[in-house]
């Protein structure tokens, strides 16, 4: 057996193997082609689905972005709006707080829902609590009339206005005006707003104005009367003075002197009336207050009224010359020194102190006596014209004239006193009144 023969089965096997591999290879190629086609299709499908999904996502992203932009814009608008609202709220609050009337908002159960800063003038409470009971926080409103009107307003009986009503606030008599307005929500009343005003000073001013009107009428009357009395009086005094010179009978002379003294008193009263009703305009010059006080005292201390009185002067050298009407200021000193002496009929001490007020363009003059003093009630009236406790002896014009003279000088005068202890008159006068000064200088 040759080699070829021997290898024939191997060759056959090899061929068979070749065919098998060939067929298998073909099958593999075929199936891989088929499979790859399917995979490619699948991938294609997947890619297109993915693409459309991506498209959709990008579309949605755009939409979301637009929504986001819109939202951000709206948020910004909202922030601007809320800032605007806060500013308006603050502005309205400032307006409400700036009014010099008490404003309180309450709900139907009389609980405070809002109040402005000014209301603290109407309560003794340190802090007004929101939601607190109205009458607990504001006891002045407990007044029967006010309570009734507030409750009526809350119960749909319309707004109210009480023009003036006396109440007690922290122990002081106070006059209030109170108004109330219903607060409505849709058609229902949900509370009320109350407006409170303290009109005590205003009422005082009205009554003062009425007094001034009376006073002005009185001044006119005084002027007329003074004129009518003064002329014949001048004739009477001149005649009695002549008579006194010629009369030798001592008794008649004494009687005539008494008549003359009374006539002088009438004349003095009339001069006072004239000064009050028609004060002459002040003539401003430079004057030395200390010198004027010393001169006035030298003149007065020889009068019988001052005989028993010890006079102490403490006149500061730091007091400069001031711009003033010498006659008016002298008259003020005379009135005040005489009042002091009259209050110390059984001896006493009259102290006069002058000083320059520190850091101010003012001179202070203090006149202190150890006399009978002035009661609290009288002290309120001493500057009123014709107020006097010296029955038959005084006209009650001294202090009212002094007051108007000091006011003419843009100064101030006040009196402190204690019954049986004594009285202190304090005067403040400005040093300079350049616009008013005239050339004359009194040394
Ligand atoms: N220093 C004082 N001490 C006690 N009371 C005084 C004193 N000064 C003034 N008064 C009181 O004030 C009142 C008014 O004083 P005012 O000088 O205006 O009038 P008057 O002294 O009564 O009369 P007039 O001064 O016109 O003679 C006095 O009647 C007196 O009651
Ligand atoms: Mg007097």
From TrEMBL:
It holds the Pfam family HisKA. SMART domains: HATPase_c (SM00387), HisKA (SM00388). PROSITE patterns: HIS_KIN. GO terms for molecular function: ATP binding; phosphorelay sensor kinase activity. Its EC number is 2.7.13.3. It catalyses: ATP + protein L-histidine = ADP + protein N-phospho-L-histidine. The chain crosses the membrane at residues 16-35. Keywords: ATP-binding, Kinase, Membrane, Nucleotide-binding, Phosphoprotein, Transferase, Transmembrane, Transmembrane helix, Two-component regulatory system. InterPro entries: HATPase_C_sf, HATPase_dom, His_kinase_dom, HisK_dim/P_dom, HisK_dim/P_sf, PAS-like_dom_sf, Sig_transdc_His_kin-like_C. Gene3D superfamilies: 1.10.287.130, Histidine kinase-like ATPase, C-terminal domain, PAS domain. Residues 224-433 form the Histidine kinase domain. The keyword Transcription regulation does not apply. This is histidine kinase. It comes from candidate division TA06 bacterium DG_78.
